[in-house]
Give the backbone structure.
Amino acid sequence: MIAPAWQNGRIVELADARIAATAPGVLRARAVFDGCRLFVRGWGHRKRAFTISMSHHIARLQASCDALGIHLAYTSSELVDAARVVIQLMQPHYDMGLRWFVSERENQSGSVGADVTVFARSLHGYTKPRPYRLNFAKRARWVGHGIPYSVKTMSHYAASRTETLSAQQNGFDDCLFVNQFGDVAETPRANLIFVASNELHSPRPEDGILSGITCKSLRHVIGKHSTFRWCERRVSVSDLASYTGALMLSSSLGVVPIERIGPFEYLTVASRAVADLWHTAMLNPAQLFLTDIDEFDY
């Protein structure tokens, strides 16, 4: 099996893990997902993979389902076991993106359920070797209306894709969303933090962001291994000119420096210092995340 996936309790090829075109998950974007990075390390011929905060990612998946009223028939432990089966079948030799995808469907009887698919994809090339360049999204991110951005739903990501493509057509790597109040939110795939002298500033959930699990993990690393003070606060567009550094962070992306946001340019020395703290912590994460590590031997 080249690319195994777990779908509704069965093992199938990822290419065969299909969702009906008439399903509510497709027609009305009633689909949610979550995922974390699968770190792969090797000793001789033996490989070991691990995740950080898998239980938090699954809890967020369940919360997203609850927010949309999607019935998720599997428990947390069953979703972990599904991931374990996929990992054992794949036996990856490099880091992967581990994903849980839930799409609502209607049966012929009219009852509503959900297709659940668990799979892993290569992260090769996902993170660029150089600092990122962001442009401002053309559309404001409206908060306080519609589905909250704390819900990781496909409707949010599908709408963001157009903005990403527009930014790339103009020579940028991605875009940054600003809410209707002129406050910085996030990018389509990552949270943001900003370096201000001895402080790190991160936008607030109420500003229109997903509450990032990697952001929380980095905050833990910063508290243990640096003198930076972490401040969750409102960040306006006018504040961007005052920062000495900026970074993007997500489970798949990691923690990476930004060199430009629209007209604002940043020295990457300060940003790299923060990114290096994260990369160093990932060399031996068990020392920092004692209760949040799930290991998989094969």
